[in-house]
Design a protein that fits this description.
Layout (H helix, E strand, L loop, with lengths): L8 E5 L2 H11 L4 E3 L5 E6 L2 E7 L9 E6 L4 H10 L4 E2 L8 E3 L2 E4 L2 E7 L5 E5 L2
Parallel strand pairs: 1-4, 5-10
Antiparallel strand pairs: 2-3, 3-4, 6-9, 7-8, 8-9, 9-10
């Protein structure tokens, strides 16, 4: 039953104003709904991205959301970099070559960045 339903990425942050600045001005999202004080809901493709304020946010050291961007990954990374997004570089990944801000593993290409709360976001060419 769930395999026919869209999943919603939920990202906890301590500072919702800083998150709004990042997700809207750097990543280009527009607020779809939300009270702006406790949560903001963004449309992302056919689903949603829910950014919410939580005292328990932070400290997570793994990817919290991934976007499949297809062959546009180089263009997207360049655009986000122009918007001031800083990308992570993971030099200890086996069988991976770093080309600028993109990690190349055979045919797969990934780029990671962090939001102001340290949540890791991923962009992949699949």
């Amino acid at each position: 039953m769930l395999n026919t339903k869209d999943a919603i990425a939920t990202i906890a942050v301590k500072d919702l104003d800083a998150a709004r600045e990042f997700y809207e001005k750097k990543l280009g999202f527009k607020q779809a709904e939300g009270d702006g004080e406790h949560y903001i809901n963004y449309i992302s493709g056919n689903t949603h991205l829910l950014v919410y304020k939580s005292e328990f946010a932070g400290g997570y050291k793994a990817t919290v959301a991934t976007w499949s961007v297809g062959n546009d990954i180089e263009k997207l990374v360049a655009e986000l970099k122009r918007n001031g997004v800083l990308f992570e570089h993971y030099k200890d990944m086996p069988n991976t070559k770093l080309e600028g801000d993109i990690h190349v593993m055979g045919d797969m290409k990934n780029a990671w960045c962090k939001d102001p709360n340290g949540n890791i976001l991923c962009f992949v060419n699949s």
